[in-house]
UniProtKB/TrEMBL annotation, chains A, B:
This is NAD(P)-dependent oxidoreductase. Residues 6-164 form the 6-phosphogluconate dehydrogenase NADP-binding domain. Residues 168-291 form the 3-hydroxyisobutyrate dehydrogenase-like NAD-binding domain. Gene3D superfamilies: N-(1-d-carboxylethyl)-l-norvaline Dehydrogenase, domain 2, NAD(P)-binding Rossmann-like Domain.
C-alpha cells in the first residue's frame, strides 16, 4: 500500500470522518465538508482539508463520496460547484452511501463519459467500525474500477462482497438488505410491545424468542435497545431512526419502479415516518417501538 | 417413567399421530380421531384406539389435545360429545395447539371447576421432530399441573420453556413468536422477489444477506425453499401456508384485544390470506413469495 495513492473524502459526517481517519493510516487523504465544524474536527484528526470539494478532488487517484442522498450525489459531481470537471481522467469515484440503484447508475454513465470509473460501494457498520476498518461493503463495479479502488476498500472493509460488475448492483443488494433490516427492527418492536401488552416479561420473552425460529440478527441487536427506549435516557443512538425513513423510501421506490408489491416494507416505512413525525428521528432506530406502544404497560 | 401412566391423545393428525407414537415408547397411549383413516394409521402404528373421545379419555392420567383451533378445543371438552364429564378428578389436560390466550384461559377456568388442571403447552417443530421427541414447547401452568404432565412433556420436548404459571402464558409467548415468524417469512419473500426483480442472483443474494444484519432464522430456513416455490414441483411442504393464516389471525386478534397496533403483522396476515385465496394454502408457507411475484424474472 503506497502513500503515493491519494484519496479525497467528500463529506466528513458521522461516517465520512472516521473513514477519512482510517484511510489516513495508509493513504494520503484530502478532506472536504460543507460544514465548517466538520472541517475543524477533520483537521483535529490530522486530515488535510481543502477550501472546496473540487480542490480536494483535483489530481486525487480516488474520490470517496459519503453523502446523504441521490440529490447530493448528483450535486457534488455535476452541480454548480461540482467536482467532475476537476477529476483527472482515470480517477475512480467510490460511492459509499445508500441512495438507490437509479441514482448511482445515472452518475456512473455520466462519469464514464469523462473517463472516470464509479465503484458502487454502499456499506454497513457504524462510525466505530468505520474507524477500525471493520465495515461490510457490497460492491458493484468493473474489475478495472475495483482494482483502482482496492487500496481504499481494503483499508475500510473487513468483509467485501462483489455483487456484480455494474455500478448499481451494490445499491441493489443494499436495498434488499435494508428491506429486511427495516422490517426486522419494526417487527421486533411489534413483538416486544405485544409481549408487554400480554403481560409477559419482555426481556425473558426476548431471550426465549431469540433461541428459536423467531430469531433475527435485528431482534438480538435492537431488541434490548427497544426495551431501553422506555428509559428516561433512551437507548444509545447507534443508528438514527431517520436513516430508515430514507432507506425504506429507497426500498419502496425501487420496488415500485419494478412493479413489485412489498406491503411489509411499505408498512415498515410508514412506522419510521410516524416515528419521525412524532419527533423520534434523531433517536436510535429501535425507538420505533414507541410508535406502536408509547409507554410500557408492565413495570421495567 | 412408568407405563402405568396413561395418556389419551385426541386428534391424530399431522402432529397428533407422531406425538402419540412417541408417547407410546414410554407410556400407555389411548388414541382417538374423528377421521377413520387417521384411526387406521394410528392402529397401524400400534396405538390403541377408542370409538369415542370420551372413551379414550376416561380414567386417563392425562389427555393431550392436538386440535385445529379454539372452537375445536371448546367442543372436544364441553361440546355434545365432550370429554369433560368423563375426565377423572385430578387428571391433567395438555393443550399443544396454538389457539390464542383467550380460548385457553377460558377452558382452563371451566376445567378448574371440575378439578382438572390445564397445561398450556403450544409447541413448535414439525411432524418429524414430534416423532423424535425433539419439539420446542412453551408452557404456562401451575407447578402442580406441570408435575402431572411431566412424563408426557419429557418424552415430547427437547426444549421446554416455562413462561409462567397461568394457562394462557404459553399461548401468549407462542403468539409473539408467530408474529415474528410470520413477518420474517413474508419479509424474506419480499426481499428475494425484489432481488430477482432488480436482476440480482437470488441464491447469491440470500447467502450474502444471511451473513449480515439482514439475517433471520426464517431467511435461512425458508429462503431457499421460497426460491424452490418456482420449480415445477415446488418446495417440500414442511409447514403449510394456511397454518399462518390461522396463526397471524391469532396474532392480530390478540393485538386488537389489547389495543396494540401491529401494522407489519396485519400486512403479513393479508399476504397469507392472499396466498390462501390464490390456492396456495396447502403449499409450503415459503410459497408466499408467489403472492408478491407469481413468476421469477431471472432464469433459475
Amino acid at each position: 500500500m503506497s502513500t503515493n495513492y491519494s484519496i479525497a473524502v467528500l463529506g466528513l459526517g458521522a461516517m465520512g470522518l472516521p473513514m477519512a481517519t482510517r484511510l489516513a493510516t495508509g493513504l494520503t487523504v484530502h478532506g472536504f465538508d460543507i460544514a465548517a465544524a466538520r472541517m475543524d474536527l477533520a483537521a483535529d484528526a490530522g486530515i488535510k482539508t481543502f477550501p472546496t470539494a473540487a480542490a480536494a478532488a483535483a489530481d486525487a487517484d480516488a474520490v470517496l463520496l459519503a453523502v446523504r442522498n441521490g440529490e447530493q450525489l448528483a450535486d457534488v459531481l455535476f452541480g454548480e460547484a461540482g467536482i467532475a470537471a476537476s477529476l483527472r481522467p482515470g480517477a475512480v469515484v467510490l460511492m459509499t452511501s445508500t441512495v438507490g440503484v437509479a441514482a448511482v447508475a445515472d452518475v456512473a454513465t455520466r462519469l464514464a463519459g469523462i473517463g472516470v470509473d464509479l465503484v458502487d460501494a454502499p456499506l454497513s457498520g457504524g462510525p466505530v467500525r468505520a474507524g477500525e476498518g471493520d465495515l461490510l461493503i457490497v460492491v458493484g463495479a468493473t474489475p478495472e474500477a475495483r482494482a483502482k479502488a482496492a487500496p481504499a476498500l481494503e483499508l475500510l472493509a473487513s468483509t467485501l462482497t462483489v455483487v456484480g460488475d455494474k455500478p448499481g448492483d451494490g445499491q441493489a443488494l443494499k436495498t434488499v438488505n435494508q428491506l429486511l433490516c427495516g422490517v426486522h427492527i419494526a417487527a421486533a418492536a411489534e413483538a416486544l410491545a405485544l409481549a408487554d401488552a400480554l403481560g409477559l416479561d419482555p426481556a425473558g420473552t426476548l431471550e426465549a424468542l431469540q433461541s428459536g425460529a423467531a430469531a433475527s440478527f435485528m431482534l438480538g441487536n435492537r431488541g434490548p435497545r427497544a426495551l431501553q427506549a422506555y428509559d428516561d435516557d433512551g437507548a444509545d443512538v447507534l443508528s438514527r431512526l431517520d436513516i430508515f425513513v430514507k432507506d425504506m423510501g429507497i426500498v419502496t421506490k425501487a420496488a415500485r419502479e419494478v412493479a413489485l408489491p412489498t406491503p411489509l416494507a411499505a408498512a415498515a416505512e410508514q412506522l419510521y415516518l410516524l416515528g419521525q413525525a412524532q419527533g423520534l428521528g434523531a433517536e436510535d432506530d429501535s425507538a420505533v417501538i414507541r410508535v406502536v406502544a408509547p409507554t410500557r404497560r408492565t413495570p421495567a
